[in-house]
Structures are given as structure tokens and as C-alpha cells.
Amino acid sequence: MPDCRPCSNLADDSSRWLHKYPAHLVRTWRLASGESFSLRPVRHDDGALEEAFVRDLSLESRYQRMLSGGVKVTPEWIESMTHIDYHRHMAFAVTCVIDGVEQFVGVGRYVVDAARPGADVALVIADAWQGRGLGRRLLATLLEHAQSAGVRQIVGVVLATNVAMLRLARSMGFSVNAEPGDATVMRIRRDLAAVNTQPH
Ligand SMILES: CC(C)(COP(=O)(O)OP(=O)(O)OC[C@H]1O[C@@H](n2cnc3c(N)ncnc32)[C@H](O)[C@@H]1OP(=O)(O)O)[C@@H](O)C(=O)NCCC(=O)NCCS
After folding, report:
1. Which atom in ligand 1 lies closest to the alpha carbon of residue 170?
2. I need a labelling partner for 148 at 20 to 30 A (CA). Which of 35, 121, 191, 196 fits?
3. Does the domain at residues 16-191 carry the CATH identifier 3.40.630.30?
4. Tens-digit pLDDT profile for residues 43-57
């Protein structure tokens, strides 16, 4: 198991996006087993961390997150994952420091859909850290933040074979329904009126 510590290195340039960076959302998470992590909004200069994180995912985790093995990790794709507006598109990274270098161990995001009420959610935890409670905390963070931002419903598309995500979603109050016309995926849906907004 890697030695994991939180990272507090947040400000390294004066780019314009920093003015809207919601630094007040940074948290430190500790697992019962002792490891500490930073939870923080994704930064526009996180491209290298995002790329390393996605490249290190197993094919299975990548497939479950992207719903496709064919997503190419291009500079444009990385930019679309990191150059977020913190409003319509919100993303949190769970990070730790391994051998002095900050690394992503999880990323979750929601994107408000202009055509429908609500937002689409997706998250992924690094393979080495799955099953330790990080996914549940990250999803709870996304729900709480979305609710506080006025999002009324969170939806997601999950592979029908993704037992872990479907179980997590059900345990957090999502409904799970078949997607009409596509037996390979399920649609998860959660209204946000009743989300507990205790600090995390
Ligand atoms: C799905 C995923 C985000 C869950 O994150 P995680 O950190 O592994 O999950 P947690 O340790 O927080 O566990 C939360 C719950 O998920 C379910 N779960 C997690 N791993 C599971 C497994 N291997 N089998 C069955 N259920 C599992 C359980 O309900 C668990 O709750 P419990 O521990 O009280 O039983 C993670 O496995 C992942 O990144 N998978 C690949 C990408 C993906 O599938 N993303 C979802 C598409 S949007």
C-alpha cells in the first residue's frame, strides 16, 4: 500500500481561472486505516495529474468509467476534464502525496445538462484504492455540492455489469432503471431534495 499524505500545494500561478477556483472546498480526509488524502476541486493546471491517473487505471476501471474502451486520452480530452467552470461543470479530485509527488487517487464530476433538469455524474477511484470507502465519500461530496449549487437531480449511466457502482448508487438512494433500447447500461437517478448537507 503506498504511503499517502495530503497535499496543501494549491497556488502556483496567477492565471485567471484561479480567481474563480473554489479553494474553500478543500478538505482533508483520513481513512480509519490511517492514510490521509486531500479532497479538492480540480484545477486547470491538473492536466499532467489527470493524464497520469487515467493512464494508470486498469482497462476495466477505464471501461467502467468511460463506458467505452476507445476513449483516446488526447490533450483536448484532458483539457475538457480540467478546464472546468466550477458551476455548470464541477469536478473534485482525491489526491495524496507518494514519494513527495502529488497524485490523483480519485476523480468525480458532475456536468449540468442544459437540455434536461439535473446533472450527469461520473466518478472513478484508482484501482489500488478501490474498496476503501473513497468512492462513497466522493459521491456524497458531489451530491452535497450539487445540492448546494441548486442542482435538483443527479443522473448517471452505469454499465449493467458494474456491480460495485450499482450497489453504491442504490445504497445512496439512487433509483436504478434499465435504459430503454440499451440492455448493456442502467440509468441511475437521485433527487437532491433530501441530501444531508453536513460538512465532509
Ligand atoms: C464504483 C467505484 C467508484 C466505487 O468506489 P470505491 O471506493 O471502490 O467504493 P467504496 O469503497 O466507497 O464502497 C462503496 C460501496 O460500493 C459497493 N462496492 C464497492 N466495491 C464493491 C465490489 N467489489 N463489489 C460489490 N460492491 C462493491 C458497496 O456497496 C460499497 O459499500 P459497503 O462497503 O458499505 O458495502 C469504484 O469501484 C471505481 O472507480 N470503479 C471503476 C469506475 C466506475 O465504475 N465508475 C462508475 C461509473 S460512473
Report:
1. 29
2. 35
3. yes
4. 999 999 999 999 999
